[in-house]
Amino acid sequence: MGHSSVKITGGLYLFHLLDFISSAAIPSAHGTKSSDRNPAQSDVWDAYRGELDGVEERVRGNLDSSVTLVNTVAAHILSGGGKRIRPLLLLLSARLCGYPGADHHQLGSIVEFIHTATLLHDDVVDDADLRRGRRAARKVWGNQISILVGDYLYTKAMCKVVEFQNQGINEVLAEACNKMAEGEVLQLYYNGNPSMPELEYIKIVEHKTAGLIAAACRMGAILAEASETQQEALFRFGQYLGIAFQVADDTLDYIANGESLGKTIGQDLRQGKATLPLLHLLQQCSEQDRQMIKDRMETRTLSTADLERILFLMADFGSITYAMDRASAYIDAAKHELERFDDSTARRALSVAADYMITRDR
Prior knowledge:
This protein has helices at about 40-45, 50-60, 70-80, 85-95, 105-125, 135-140, 145-160, 165-190, 200-225, 230-255, 260, 265-270, 275-285, 285-300, 305-315, 320-340, 345-360, and strands spanning about 5-10, 15-20, 130, 135. The chain is mainly alpha-helical. It has one domain: Farnesyl Diphosphate Synthase, CATH 1.10.600. Helix 4 (about 85-95) packs across helix 9 (about 200-225), helix 9 packs across helix 10 (about 230-255) and helix 13 (about 275-285) crosses helix 16. The chain starts with a strand and ends with a helix. The model is unreliable at about 1-40 (pLDDT under 50).
């Protein structure tokens, strides 16, 4: 089996990444194997539907505010079609480490509450009109309500997590929330700045997106009383996965179907955000095109003709391919961490979930 050397800039590591075979079958919910084909993410969702239903039940049960509007706004976004990626990774990490219980359902709902809180806050910061193809909560109830309900979900999650009386889980979740806040501030600092170094972009992604995914994986391991080595491996798995997830998401902003994605194509550029495909393009294109892009970022103006020109340049200079190759390298690094564990249904499911991060279209 061959291997290649890939530098992953944000993590400052040089990895010898193996060529992984992704055709291992995933047992279905009834214990049978899907054979003679590559497993799909839908197989994983089907196999763990009962587990995810347990998370959904806890999500609904935890929406018990005496203020009806809080429950209404929270339910609006929680029922908006999210894939529950973070709870799924937590569930799978716990099972991978041999956890036999059901408390990971509650822990998964806590992670989803925190993620949902960030979405409510992000939409206010970004002046977003859509979230997952629906009107953003801020467009229905206003910015103030969105911020306050986001705060409620944060504090509700913290109230619930202390019930576990597990200092390790408390510390991991608290650190993730702290990093997410730092990532948001750093992103705002660079907003409208096309000269942001790629390293800083990766740092923002590590803090803003990868932090909670990594925490979810580690919390599953902690709940299973896994060894420190296993906890650290799953934390790194989640971190690499989270970076790949965000890089792919940022790339989808330029190539996906707008209706499927649930937001306007080119929205990041309209908001002054320099993501990896654009950073690559700015290093490759002519000075004239570079100045045009910088002007559009600084003035937050972008015509249809401008966007078409930028998309053409990205195709011409391979910026989309560059970004997706970077995302793929992080996925390979994540899957390399899984080799520390014995083969199992949960391990194969985590591998498939990793591939989904860069093959999804929304």
